[in-house]
């Protein structure tokens, strides 16, 4: 089983899909501030870590995409695997080259949005790891 992210959000102004994962995040397409914040970073990190603890890697072999949140989750899991498979580069370098090489089509606005969100998830995972280490001392 996998922990899915059942979440869909479209901008109320331009209908672009994005995730207001923090209160200062505005629509990456039109800039509208919807004054919404969703604590999805915690959920994404939890889902990624669950995947890692049961399978040994972040990207699920089979991942049913039931929502926009699931779509975003899969993109982020893949970049996490790419990052943790090497030791020379910082997370942001990996995320940028990974998402720059992706074809975004009409969803170009999403690129930096996903890079920033993936970085937040990475920080959350590292924070959780530290917390667990400290608890076991
Ligand atoms: Zn918008």
The biggest sheet amounts to:
none
Strand content: under 5%
User: Outline, from the CA principal axes?
Assistant: globular
Number of helices: 4
Order of helices and strands: HHHH
Could you give the count of β-strands?
A: 0
- Helical content class: 40-55%
Which structural class matches the secondary elements?
Answer: mainly alpha
Helix/strand layout:
Elements: H1 40-55, H2 68-84, H3 91-100, H4 110-136
Helix pairs in contact: 1-4, 2-3, 2-4, 3-4
Zinc ion (ZN) binds at residues 11, 13-14, 16, 27, 29-30, 32.
Give short descriptive properties of this protein.
single chain; 137 residues; mainly alpha; 4 helices; 0% strand
What can you tell me about this protein's structure?
This protein is mainly alpha-helical and 137 residues long. The protein is built from 4 helices and no strands. It has helices spanning 40-55, 68-84, 91-100, 110-136. Zinc ion binds at residues 11, 13-14, 16, 27, 29-30, 32.
In short:
This protein is mainly α and 137 residues long. The protein is 51% helix and 0% strand.
């Amino acid at each position: 089983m996998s922990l899915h992210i059942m979440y869909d959000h479209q901008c109320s102004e331009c209908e672009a899909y994005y995730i207001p994962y923090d209160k200062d995040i505005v629509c990456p397409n039109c800039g509208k501030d919807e004054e919404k914040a969703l604590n999805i970073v915690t959920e994404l990190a939890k889902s990624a870590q669950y995947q890692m603890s049961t399978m040994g890697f972040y990207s699920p072999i089979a991942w049913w995409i039931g929502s926009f949140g699931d779509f975003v989750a899969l993109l982020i899991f893949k970049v996490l695997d790419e990052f943790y498979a090497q030791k020379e580069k910082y997370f942001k370098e990996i995320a940028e080259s990974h998402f720059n090489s992706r074809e975004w089509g009409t969803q170009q606005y999403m690129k930096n949005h996903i890079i920033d969100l993936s970085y937040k998830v990475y920080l959350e995972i590292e924070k959780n790891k530290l917390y667990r280490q400290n608890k076991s001392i």
